[in-house]
What does this fold into?
Amino acid sequence: MVILVTGASGQLGQAIQFIASNYLEFKFIFASSEDLDIINQERVNYFFDTNRIDFCINAAAYTAVDKAESEIEKAESINVFGPKNLAVACKNHNAKLIHISTDFVFDGSSSKPYSETDTTNPLGIYGKTKLDGEQAVIDNMNEYFIIRTSWVYSQFGNNFMKTMLRLASERDSLSIVSDQIGSPTNAVDLAGAIMQIVVKSQDSTSSIQYGIYNFSNEGIASWYDFATEIFRINNVTINVTPIVSEAFPTPAKRPKYSLLDKSKIKNTFGIEIKTWQESLLQTI
Ligand SMILES: NC(=O)c1ccc[n+]([C@@H]2O[C@H](COP(=O)([O-])OP(=O)(O)OC[C@H]3O[C@@H](n4cnc5c(N)ncnc54)[C@H](OP(=O)(O)O)[C@@H]3O)[C@@H](O)[C@H]2O)c1
It folds into this structure.
């Protein structure tokens, strides 16, 4: 079986490459944005015409949440037309698609973890384009898995964990938002969950349940909690002050609460999920 991974140079793309050697039964094609620009419909079709692809994992995305507010067209083409091109190509070539989405499709007004069927209401352009990207997949094919995840970090690429460690090496004190609640997600754990879905989908004895699934690490955190745990594990001594979101204005509004209910992915695929603290410790 051949698995195409788009956006292969991003955090998730690199995390999948990191664990790919555990799946020697599959052939992986890792395509960076230079190898395959997902917004180029002709290139996408040509890529699928000239390579046998059974599964596509779309790890490509426009992820600059604040910049998206002023780069609407760019965010839209990568997050909406990109997944649409992949969905059409997958359908035409009988391939399955795993597409990654975000907790930012929600407005954060809930007080209990979001299930896959809860009402969406993105607060910013990034969330809106990601929601429209989900719909583009749903409208153009049947054999898809959409995985909504949150607060992704890893040893790869740019992310909150790396930013905190860099800032701590430059400053004596930091103020971190403490009124946004969610769950950090280790990209390597997300990659593992994706591969478990791929493997289970190959099992002819089980009926495949396509659709939307939530995945993050277990547990609850604010960005302040996440930062203080990063510093604790790294033995970094720094003064960290919790602040409210209003004291740290950003171009894009973010959901105040974005915990995801993971019952569906756990029950359907038997996926066991580590706590974010356990996973952070392993990453560091
Ligand atoms: N990071 C988070 O906190 C977070 C939270 C929730 C959900 N997610 C979702 O999780 C997924 C993976 O995120 P990530 O953190 O791994 O993102 P990332 O590190 O920003 O990687 C995204 C990758 O997409 C590539 N890309 C951009 N435009 C492309 C195009 N037109 N064609 C092909 N590739 C293109 C980028 O390549 P270049 O660098 O060459 O442009 C980059 O390698 C995304 O769907 C994201 O929306 C992320």
